[in-house]
Here is the input.
Amino acid sequence: MSSPVKPIILLSIILLIGSCAGSLGKKHQTQHEVGIAYLNLETGEMLAYNAHTLFHAASTMKTPVMFQLYRMRDQRVIKLTDNVRVTNSFTSIVDGSLYSLPIQSVDDEILYPFLNTNMSYFDLIDKMITHSSNLATNILMEYTTPDSIASTLKKVGANGVMVLRGVEDLKAYNLGLNNVTSAFGMMKVMEAVYRSDLVADSSRQEMIDILSRQVYNSMIPAGLPAGTRVAHKTGSITQIAHDAAIVYPQDASPFVLVILTRGWDKHSEASRVGARIASKVYDYHLGKLSRTDIIVPDLLK
Here is the structure.
């Protein structure tokens, strides 16, 4: 596969011009934070704002897990058609002790009705991405280690992305051992899904198809024209709401957009901010706006 055009790395000054730098203010610095990374997949141009700031990854970490499993498939380590057991018993990275996910109903976990049955790797990956199943994530993490994911992330240049553990490993959480990401790092993950030679062409297409079936669409897709194809993975926990996407405009080249947010009490408010950012970046990509038309502080209100 041909190498992409060398990116034009334009850091915070791109989305926040110098004359506006002072307008960010203490409120946004301490309470409302965003990290943004855009990559034109045809030209290699980048736009970035706080792109190397680390955020709790929330469920965006599930895309690197998926990528690693497809790499294992292409290396003939696993077959995605093979079945594995749907269980709710996992190993803490701290001391090897067992823990379970707190599951109340199918509203909390789509795989709840399938406990103690068998399901294919592919179906578990699909549920992990499209419905953000934590149970599927932890089951799959038992078959691909954090070390192997870290090695793959290094190969794709995903600096700032660290997948250390599964979900609800409270012993690890209490020690500050959390999955983290930067906007730049997750942008590199999404770029890898689109064109990395570490996996086969068919694997990249399958991953894009799965990401395109995402059921949570209140951030990046909400800011784009109706009908725009978006292959993306969201993530949210308390005061955290993210979206990482490959966007396919109808009449332009595709691009990657990652929006990370921290500090909004309501996910709906963070999603609206993300949608506003996505709309501006989309118009920039289509040549309707210049870089200096995108003033991040104004979009955070």
